[in-house]
Amino acid sequence: MKLTVHGSRGSVPISSPQSVGYGGNTSCYELLFDDYQLIFDTGTGFRQVKLDQFKRTFIFYSHWHHDHIQGLAFNSGMFNAEKKIHISSALNNKITCRKLIHQYFSGFYFPIELTELLPNLMFLEFNEVQRSCKRDFSIETLKLNHPGGSVGYSVKWNDIKISFLLDNEYNISQFSNLSGFVHGANLVVWDGMFSNADLVSKGDWGHSSIEQGIEFFQQCDITKMLITHHAPSRTDQQLDTLAKKLPDGVRLARDGLIVDFT
Ligand SMILES: [Zn+2]
Ligand SMILES: [Zn+2]
Fold it and tell me: What is the C-alpha to C-alpha distance for residues 181 and 131, in angstroms, rounded to an integer?
């Protein structure tokens, strides 16, 4: 199993000489294994995903904030009518899921009617996906704490487990649910948009801190943690300084990072 980070930035894509190291694309993560290509969110990083003709491709949405969906129309592979893309979210049913994507990529907001133009986009109920794939891998979900709602996912294949916790504002009352959800994970992807100092003025904005991630990592039975959803204001230099203080097993995500579990 191979994880690729295509977009590690939170809130809005950025481009500046101070961010070339970590990159400026918004949320998109890809898991490749066996006959499957699983994509988690389609922020601007989705442009970089090579849609695999020989695998079944699924997109799982954590939620519908624009930094998690805005890249969907900008991957040229989507316009190959032969390539089926299965889209699902544990946050909403397939009708709502289709409606939200349709609204975002149509009308006043977008020049083409994306869902009308691309019949190869197949919207599925999340529990349908769970059932149809269960012989090959398992995917579980958990509600997170985020304005408007958000869900995490844990994927398990051949004893390798990866958990995504985006976007989430951590609070201690979540600990037992979250630690159970990620139990035994080889890697946990953590929303570390803020520092504890930022949280003083940005409580209720829907994100956790890097320090909370470290603490959670040390309290749970997990092997590695990848801290991501970097604030758009954070420069490479600031992120490098933060990275030096991380304990073994915890690292900062950057666009293009590949973690190979095979
Ligand atoms: Zn976000
Ligand atoms: Zn969000």
Answer: 19
